[in-house]
Amino acid sequence: MAKLLLDEAVKLLLTLARTRRSVVQMLPAKLLVLAQSSSS
Length: 40
What we know:
Helix content: over 70%
Oligomer: single chain
Distance between the termini: 58 Å
C-alpha cells in the first residue's frame, strides 16, 4: 500500500515538474507576443 502511494506521489511530482517546465518555456513567447502587440 505504501509503495503504491509512493509511486503515485512520484508520478504527480514528475507531472508537476514537466508542466512547470513547459510553462516556463511558454512564458517568453507569450511575453514577446504581448510586447509586439502593445508596441504596434
